[in-house]
């Protein structure tokens, strides 16, 4: 199964990154998704006026310009699922993935559903099976949720300056409120303490996570930067990391920008631990202890999913 997964990832990466036809498809899908997201922008402008425009005097307003698009896309995804279109797509892609990987239909269904729904939404689709799932199947549910990103979140990432093409490639390779505020505030407080020593938490992250930048094939000058981004994503969340990356991605070359963006995709961070356990435990209370026991490993697995995807793309783009 592992060999199949590695081969499949390399093939997908080659097709989407190196083959002209694949890049053309990614470009066209990117344009289409961006057009849909722009419809949400029209709604935000109608309700919030100039606050929805990052170029206006008010500047960047995260809660409106970034999170606002997520509300629109979440509603759109829910509508598509309600009328059966999304369910049909997920069902048949899930069957194909299951046959390719040799996984159960439930596991495959959840893994594919996470491409469109959130980490606590997709388990609802298989809630009646959760009680009978083995530990390995529960782990798949958790890791697929941690390592993937839903369609509804793409608008938020692009609003931070991340190219849609990179996000679509990452999504293909990998079938918010009080917690966010608390975590960001906590890091700010830690930075105050570390400031006495002339360092920041981000600088600490740069060195702790720097080896990952090396294994992703980045230039030595970019290794510490990637370590900083990965650390921000893990301890804070991917929005903070993408916000940092969005401010500098235009100055990066194509390969570096893509690797960094893909490595940050997914919900694997400390904030998601409680979200996953509480969100899924509501559906199946008897699995609460299992979820609590596996969720940290699942978070690490989710981080690995994004890093493996970035590593595959890094290798493919070397040639």
TrEMBL record:
Protein name: Nucleoside permease NupC
Domain named Concentrative nucleoside transporter N-terminal: residues: 3-51
Subcellular location: Cell membrane
One GO term describing the cellular component: plasma membrane
Organism encoding this protein: Enterocloster clostridioformis
Similarity comment: family membership: Belongs to the concentrative nucleoside transporter (CNT) (TC 2.A.41) family.
Pfam families, per the entry: Gate, Nucleos_tra2_C, Nucleos_tra2_N
Membrane-protein topology: Multi-pass membrane protein
Superkingdom of source: Bacteria
Residue ranges of every copy of the Nucleoside transporter/FeoB GTPase Gate domain listed in the record: 64-160
Transmembrane segments: 70-93, 138-160, 166-186, 193-216, 256-282, 294-318
Molecular functions per Gene Ontology: nucleoside transmembrane transporter activity; symporter activity
Domain called Concentrative nucleoside transporter C-terminal: residue spans: 173-314
Coiled-coil spans in chain: none
